[in-house]
Amino acid sequence: MLITPRLPGDEFEGYAEVSVGNYDMQRLQGVVNIPVNDSFRLRLGVDHQKRDGYLENKSGIGPGEFADLDYTAFRVSAIFDITDSLENYTIFKTVDSKNNNSPASLFMCNPDAGGLGTFYAPMCADDLANRAAQGADGHFDVWSNLANPTSEIEQWQLINTTSWDMREDIRLKNIFSYAETETRYESMVYATNFNFGVLDTFLGLPDGFFADREFIFAMAGHAEGINQSDSRTVINELQLQGTSLGDRLEWQAGIYYEKTKPVEDYGSQSPGSNSCDRATIKDPQPQNWRCNDVLGQLIGFPYGSIGSGTGGVIYENKAVYGQGTYYFSDKYALTLGLRYTDDKSEGQVDDVRAFFPGNYSSTETFAPDQVNSKVVKSEANSEEPTWVVGFD
Predict the structure, then answer these.
(1) Which of 187, 208, 218, 385 has the greatest count of CB atoms below 10 A from its CB?
(2) In the predicted model, is pLDDT for residue 340 greater than 90?
(3) Are 208 and 242 in contact (CB under 8 A)?
(4) What is the DSSP letter of 52?
């Protein structure tokens, strides 16, 4: 199935559509088609929607709801008939979206979890019990302790198609596209509210031996100034299409090129299984992170950590192809096609993992005492022909 936007037409026309719904949903869509003159036609469209989230945040920290919507999409397209045989068709479109994202929720714990689950199980059960006591354990209740969770997408794309009817039975077409995409994301991955205080009883220690402080199970986000993705893509395809042999043969041949590369370094930064000062862990410099690896001290080796990976990947694709369909009659046709593709991808990531001292009787957080850093490079290449034979 090929879905394409409606082309600019010869009539002045348009429509507007307004929608409302629950969770204060409001949506506006509109299109206007403008035939500027006999050779130039415009079509503009916009789609804007806002909706409150249906997941309710019970932590009292950050936004009150999640899974909300707030986006605006815009598209303008134009057709210019340069001559009777030469046409240029251009599309420009943008999308700008920002919402609070959708964290997971906690519904069940495994009381018989072994290994390190021995430490997690009582914290999980305590979290569930606290939610039930506060009436915060509904199906759409979540618990996120981030002050500014976000999911942002900014994207724009330009597509230009030039078609030249060289003869009545041969058309030359060039399709060019340039696009940029940028995303930012920050979320509590599991949206748990584990606390160390419950381990006093579990381990038979005096009340208050563990300070009742929050335990970050996992959080995904970006360092300040680092996007989740930040890339640009260039595509160009040159096609030659036509009919031959008394219109019994329909054929097409072409060459294709595509390349995606980073605009700037992108990646993610995630603390896990630690008690951390959240004001510090978004900093791009490991020496500024502050955490307390309580479980690491209990089990005797480093456990909690912060992982950071920034870099980028370059994708390059080249291909040449040809395909034809021969109609023996109104009922029978034979299709033959051949394509040769050369794919290449290569990436580099600065992989950093920091470990911290642990002190289970203190709420103090510490600078990392161990930082492992390495540059990871990888590449993959493939060159293969693909073919098709079809009889209809």
Answers:
(1) 187
(2) yes
(3) no
(4) -
SS3 of residue 265 by DSSP: coil
CA 95 to chain centre: 13
Which residues are within 8 A (CB) of 84 and not within 5 positions of it... i.e. 6 or more apart?
none
C-alpha–C-alpha distance, residues 10 and 97, integer Å: 33
Question: In the chain, what is the straight-line distance between the N-terminal and C-terminal CA atoms, in Å?
Answer: 19
Q: Scan for tokens 């980073």, then name that residue.
A: 262
Give the whole-angstrom CA distance, residue 319 versus residue 389.
19
For residues 373 and 355, give the distance between their C-alpha atoms in angstroms, rounded to a whole number: 12
Half-sphere exposure of 116 (CA within 13 A, CB side): 13
Q: Are residues 192 and 216 in contact, defined by beta-carbon separation less than 8 angstroms?
A: no
Cα–Cα dist 305/372, whole Å: 11
Looking at the DSSP bridge assignments, the partners of residue 271 are 306
pLDDT band at 7 (very low <50, low <70, confident <90, very high): very high
CB 169 within 8 A of CB 201: no
Residue 144 phi, psi (nearest 5):
-120, 130
CA torsion, ordered 44, 50, 54, 58, to nearest 10 deg: 140
- Count Cβ atoms below 10 Å from residue 386 Cβ, excluding itself: 11
Q: What are phi and psi of 368, to 5 degrees?
A: -65, 140
E strand or H helix at 80, and its extent?
Answer: strand 69-81
Report CA 380 to chain centroid distance, whole Å: 22
The answer to whether 215 and 123 have CB atoms below 8 angstroms apart is yes
Alpha carbon distance 286, 307 (integer Å)? 10
